[in-house]
Specification:
heterodimer; A: mainly alpha; Four Helix Bundle (Hemerythrin (Met), subunit A); 8 helices; elongated; B: mainly alpha; Cytochrome C Oxidase, Chain A; 3 domains; two-stranded antiparallel sheet; globular
Chain lengths: 219, 683
């Protein structure tokens, strides 16, 4: 992938063009894949993307904070939130960060079987969280808070919906990683792929801690 | 691929049998590097840069046409060439087109083409994501403009203040196209920005420390960081507007308790960094042109860099100066007035540095240099009128008058566009191998300078006399008549001037066809690494990646001090430049999937507006395309050698002819991560 483009300068010493053989390609066999910063392109890109995503959630959370108490009618936060239920599903999501970390640890040790177990567990915990969110949303709708009911409804479903979409995309990635692993394509040489995905997963969890605190607990 | 230097069949196996790779069994891997089809599948940053430039110039013609229609209507008082409604659409689409589909992509064209070359890289970090960025931008731009045929263009101004842009006040689908079209160009810019940030940080040539990077690359880097952090904010605003308009959400529904300031804040938190996104690449362009034609290094290089970074940071703290008239309170107004005056300081530093670079230099007034000086002077005028906006009491008088229109055209047209036009003349020989005609180029410059000042200069007067923006006509006898006529004449002079440019391109190309004279690697006696390779740049960029020891590395290889301490030429550019004849350079392969994924996105957009079933179809295309992308090796067939095995080109590197899908899965770089196309972790 990118490393092929990225790293051909590593062994270049002279600035005169070689005769007809490129010494980089035909030199000392294995060329290291170091980049200018030492961080791989994929990992750096994920960090930059997560930095960008911070602003996405920052804007959504600000919007929610501005609008949550401005409804003119209909249910407000205090009328619908079921803190004990959401606490449990939040704990489930937080726990999935632990299993994700264990999956990364396993693949770094080359333990593909354990990695698969922990990837599956992470996906199932994530799916449980999404299931909880679906249950919560349907309950709220039954209690009279639809997406268009009032301004709180619009802001709440949009913020938590964006987070839910992030978790769902994460689950799809987890399943894809699992399929790769089952086909034997996710060995220790690809440990960084799991690690980079882990960054995303932990980020999504941290965002949920913020949302849970700001949306559910503080009022 | 391994063998780019065989232009006829670059993906051919050593046996002569063509490579057939069918990711997910759907399509054969694209193979050609010539012909129009190869442009659809290319992942070469240079070709993508050229396509960005071509698309931007196409949209420039559209936006310019809209501008001429506006000026026709305003040429005389009381005209009724079109309805007020159509006039609203014209000025909205003119603004949106010029900002999002012309100036940003022109900057993207230069940054895509030049930044990898200037840091000494073979391509960007994620070549396929780069192709995706371009196609996604094009899809968004086309979707936005198809609104003309599907019920009318956007009509709420380029900043689309909600609730004025809600369904109540804007019942046509125009604003839906605006929101979704800009969402797509936003995704495109975000992906491109992540890509270029990683490229600059990670793929610099040996010895190319950050403080040895050319000023253009630095300004591009700051621009990309601004995009990374500004775009998600406008994305959220556009999502909220879309949900309001299409799904009856209440974000901007004032009767439900919404706050009209929400949109203004979200938009301008993006919108003010956005103006630096527009201008910083042009600053970078003239920072390359002026030293070359002054025969001096850039004056105060570190000041140039740090003032750019300072603009990047301070650009986040001034957004509310667009909102002085919104009644947000005296404290906010005072704070933002002060921060706005402050941001003039780093910009002034840049102008002083350009002047000091020219001071005492051996100036050559070529066309690119004229345009660069045009930027410095015209942007200074625009910058000064900008400082007057920082004075809040005065700004509340100027808000929504033509004074504002005059100001932002002086900075965006007189600043950004002048710089980019100079850049086109400057790098044209590098990109296409022939120089543009200097005589026509100078005609182009002087006519555009006159036309530009005739068009926008009078708007200062009109604005201070109180002529409001966005009104489709005006009444006779308010003193607006004369200057509006002047302005309209100026607009048509600009049109003539751009026709001269088109003629220049055509005639220069024909002259080159009749009598091909290659411009050579270094036609201007230039300073940075992109001039060290042949013109046009070979697809692998550098035969051998240079080791950098100086700022202006290429210049230091041409000039050195002699025994008396005098700087003398020790080699010509052609002697120092690489020959571009390296073989067996490992390059990423072309791919269909960026195009497929990008084609699915506007289908989702149309579906959201007209029929959700269509959106589902688009969604399926995007998801399948993304998975096929994820499972397609970026640089097959060598990918079998995977990490560390750059032993391709020996013939044994082409052994992966198992082409049965199974075999390739083994070579997937980092697997399905990145398969949404937005998560930039796989390419």
């Amino acid at each position: 992938m990118t490393e092929t483009v990225a790293t051909e300068h590593e062994t270049t010493e002279s600035d005169q063009p070689g005769p007809d053989v490129d010494p980089v390609m035909h030199g000392k066999g294995v060329v290291s894949h170091a980049t200018s910063t030492g961080v791989s392109n994929e990992k750096l890109a994920m960090w930059v993307f997560l930095g960008s995503d911070c602003l996405l959630f920052g804007a959504l959370i600000s919007t929610y904070l501005l609008l949550r108490h401005r409804s003119t009618h209909g249910p407000g936060p205090a009328d619908v939130f079921d803190i004990p239920f959401t606490s449990v599903s939040s704990f489930v999501l937080l726990f999935s960060s632990l299993t994700m970390a264990l999956a990364v640890g396993a693949i770094h040790r080359g333990d593909e079987r354990r990695c698969r177990i922990f990837l599956t567990t992470t996906a199932m915990l994530g799916a449980t969280f999404i299931g909880g969110q679906v249950y919560e949303f349907t309950t709220f709708v039954k209690e009279g808070l639809g997406y268009t009911t009032n301004i709180f409804g619009s802001a709440f479903y949009t913020l938590t919906g964006f987070h839910g979409a992030h978790v769902s995309i994460g689950i799809i990635f987890l399943l894809s990683l699992l399929v790769m692993s089952l086909r034997g394509k996710l060995g220790v040489d690809r440990a960084e792929t799991v690690e980079i995905f882990g960054l995303y997963w932990h980020f999504v969890d941290i965002v949920w801690i913020l949302i849970f605190t700001i949306v559910y607990l503080i009022p | 691929m391994a063998i780019v230097e065989r232009p006829t069949a670059p993906l051919e196996l050593t046996t002569g049998e063509p490579e057939t790779i069918r990711p997910l069994g759907v399509m054969t891997r694209p193979q050609g590097t010539t012909g129009w089809k190869s442009w659809l599948t290319t992942v070469d940053h240079k070709r993508i840069g050229i396509m960005y430039g071509a698309a931007a110039l196409f949209f420039f013609v559209l936006g310019g046409f809209e501008a001429l229609l506006i000026r026709l209507q305003l040429a005389a008082p009381g005209q009724k060439l079109y309805s007020a409604d159509l006039y609203n659409q014209l000025f909205t689409m003119h603004g949106v087109t010029m900002i999002f589909l012309v100036v940003i992509p022109l900057g993207a064209a230069f940054m895509n083409y030049l930044m990898p070359l200037q840091v000494g890289a073979r391509d960007v970090a994620f070549p396929r994501l780069n192709a995706f960025s371009y196609w996604c931008f094009l899809a968004g731009g086309l979707l936005l403009n198809t609104s003309w045929f599907l019920g009318g263009g956007a009509d709420g101004g380029w900043f689309a203040y909600a609730p004025n842009t809600g369904v109540t006040f804007s019942p046509s689908h125009g604003m839906d196209f605006y929101a979704i079209g800009l969402q797509l160009t936003g995704i495109a810019s975000l992906v491109g920005a992540i890509n270029l940030v990683v490229t600059v940080l990670n793929m610099r040539a040996p010895g190319m420390t950050l403080m040895k990077m050319p000023v253009f690359t630095w300004m591009g880097f700051v621009t990309q960081l601004l995009l990374v952090f500004a775009l998600p904010v406008i994305s959220v605003a556009l999502f909220l507007l879309t949900f309001d308009r299409l799904f009856n959400a209440n974000f901007f529904n004032v009767s439900e308790g919404a706050d009209p300031l929400l949109w203004e804040h979200l938009f301008w938190i993006f919108g003010h960094p956005e103006v630096y996104i527009l201008i910083l690449p042009a600053f970078g362009v003239v920072s390359e042109i002026i030293p070359v034609f002054s025969r001096k290094p850039i004056f105060g290089y570190p000041f140039m860099i740090f003032s750019g970074i300072a603009i990047g940071f301070m650009g986040w703290g001034v957004w509310a100066h667009h909102m002085f008239a919104s009644g947000m309170g005296p404290l906010s107004v005072a704070a933002f007035a002060v921060s706005t005056m402050f941001i003039a300081v780093p910009t002034g530093v840049k102008i002083l540095n350009w002047l000091a670079t020219m001071w005492g230099g051996k100036l050559r007034f070529t066309t690119p240099m004229l345009f660069a000086i045009g930027l410095v002077t015209m942007f200074t005028i625009g910058g000064l009128s900008g400082v007057t906006h920082a004075v809040a009491p005065s700004d509340t008088q100027q808000t929504d008058t033509y004074y504002i229109v005059a100001h932002f055209h002086y900075v965006i047209f007189g600043g950004a566009l002048m710089g980019f036009l100079g850049g086109l003349y400057f790098w044209w020989p590098k990109v296409f191998g022939f120089l543009l005609n200097e005589k026509l180029g100078k005609w182009h410059f002087w006519t555009i300078l006159i036309g530009f000042n005739l068009t926008f200069g009078p708007m200062h007067i009109l604005g201070l006399q109180g002529m409001p923006r966005r009104m489709h006509t005006y009444v006779e006898g308010y003193g607006f008549d004369f200057w509006n006529m002047v302005s309209t004449i100026g607009a048509f002079i600009i049109a003539v001037s751009m026709t001269i440019f088109a003629a220049n391109v055509l005639l220069s190309w024909r002259a080159h066809r009749r009598n091909p004279v290659n411009a050579g690697p270094d036609p201007w006696d230039a300073r940075s690494l992109e001039w060290m390779v042949p013109s046009p740049v070979p697809s692998h960029n550098f035969d051998e990646v240079p080791t950098v020891s100086h700022l202006d590395e290429f210049w230091h290889r041409k000039y050195a001090e002699n025994a008396e301490g005098k700087v003398v030429r020790v080699a010509t550019g052609a002697e120092v430049a690489q020959k571009g004849d390296a073989e067996n350079v490992h390059l990423p392969s072309p791919s269909y999937w960026p195009l497929v994924v990008a084609a699915g996105l506007p289908i989702i957009g149309y579906g959201l507006i007209f029929n959700l079933a269509l959106a589902a179809v688009g969604g399926v295309i995007v998801v399948l395309g993304a998975f096929a992308w994820g499972y397609e090796p970026a640089d097959d067939p060598e990918a079998h050698h995977g990490h560390g095995g750059h032993d391709d080109g020996h013939g044994d590197g082409h052994g992966d002819d198992d082409g049965d899908g199974e075999g390739e899965l083994a070579t997937v770089g980092s697997g399905p991560a990145g398969t949404t196309g937005e998560e930039a972790s796989d390419d």
